[in-house]
Specification:
Blueprint: E1 11-15, E2 24-30, E3 36-42, E4 62-68, E5 73-81, E6 86-91, E7 94-98, E8 104-109, E9 112-123, E10 126-136, E11 144-156, E12 172-184, E13 189-191, H1 196-200, H2 206-215, H3 223-235
Antiparallel strand pairs: 1-2, 1-7, 2-3, 4-5, 4-8, 5-6, 6-7, 8-9, 9-10, 10-11, 11-12, 12-13
Length: 238
C-alpha cells in the first residue's frame, strides 16, 4: 500500500483483503511530515460473526470528521466499536483504527460528538487509571460536560444449572450498557449518579444548584435536564 495518512500518532491500517481468518495491521510511525516508517504484524482475530447482536454504536458507516489536537482534521466514514473501545475510520479507500486516541480532540458523526478521556477511579484507597470513548452531551470547552459511556459485554447462554430446569444453547450475544460521567474543568472523566444529590455535589455551592433545580422543575434523572443545568452554570463560569 503506497498511501499513508501522516497525522503524528500511531494508526493501524486494516488490510481485510489478505484473508477472512485474520487481519493484518500496519503500525505507522510518523517521524516527521515527510518521513514515515512501517512495521507489519498480525493481529489476534476473533470471529465476531459467531456472536449475535452488534458490538458497534452505529451499525452502518457514518460520514463525519476527525479532529486532531494539533488542529489537523480529516473527513471520512466512522464506526465506533464499543466492545473493543476503538474508533474505526475509512479515509479515501483505506480503513484505519485509531490506536492513540488521546491525541484525538473529537470525532463527530450523526450530529454526535465523541471524545476519548482518561478515567480516574478510587477503590480501597488506591487510584485506578483507565480510558474510554464517551459521547459528549454539551460543549467540550465548558467547565461541566456530561458524558455517556457505553460498555459492550458478551453474554453466554450456557448449559449451567443456575436455574432449575434451564438449559442454554451455548449461543453468545453482545449486550450494551450505558452509564454517565462528567468532565470537570477539562479534567479526567468521573462517574456520576444522575440524581439531585449526585449532580449538586459537583458544585461548590450545592444550595444554589438545588434551588435552581427546584425552581425550574428539572429532573436530574434525565440527561437533557442535566445538560440544561450545566449550560446555565457554565454561562455563569462557576
Amino acid at each position: 500500500m503506497k498511501k499513508y495518512l501522516v497525522i503524528y500518532f500511531i494508526i493501524f491500517i486494516s488490510l481485510n483483503t489478505f484473508s477472512q481468518e485474520h487481519t493484518i495491521y500496519i503500525d505507522a510511525y510518523a517521524v516527521s511530515s515527510n518521513i514515515t516508517s512501517f512495521t507489519i504484524t498480525k493481529s489476534n482475530y476473533s470471529k465476531e460473526k459467531e456472536i449475535k447482536g452488534n458490538p458497534y454504536y452505529n451499525k452502518e458507516w457514518m460520514f463525519g470528521e476527525l479532529k486532531i489536537k494539533n488542529n489537523s482534521s480529516y473527513s471520512g466514514l466512522f464506526k465506533y466499536n464499543i466492545h473493543q473501545q476503538q474508533m474505526e475510520m475509512i479515509h479515501k479507500k483505506d480503513t484505519f483504527i485509531i490506536s492513540k486516541p488521546l491525541y484525538v480532540e473529537y470525532v463527530k458523526f450523526s450530529n454526535k460528538t465523541f471524545i476519548y478521556s482518561l478515567i480516574i477511579s478510587t477503590g480501597k484507597g488506591a487510584e485506578k487509571i483507565s480510558g474510554s470513548y464517551f459521547r459528549a452531551h454539551n460543549n467540550l470547552e465548558d467547565n461541566y460536560v456530561l458524558l455517556s459511556k457505553f460498555r459492550s459485554d458478551i453474554k453466554v447462554n450456557d448449559y449451567g444449572t443456575r436455574y432449575a430446569g434451564s438449559i442454554g444453547d451455548g449461543s453468545k450475544r453482545y449486550t450494551t450498557n450505558k452509564s454517565f460521567y462528567v468532565k470537570l474543568f477539562n479534567g479526567p472523566a468521573q462517574k456520576v449518579n444522575l440524581s439531585t444529590n449526585g449532580i449538586a455535589k459537583l458544585f461548590s455551592d450545592k444550595k444554589i444548584v438545588k434551588k435552581y433545580i427546584k425552581k425550574n422543575k428539572l429532573n436530574m434523572n434525565n440527561a437533557k435536564d442535566v445538560v440544561l443545568l450545566f449550560d446555565h452554570f457554565n454561562k455563569l463560569n462557576l
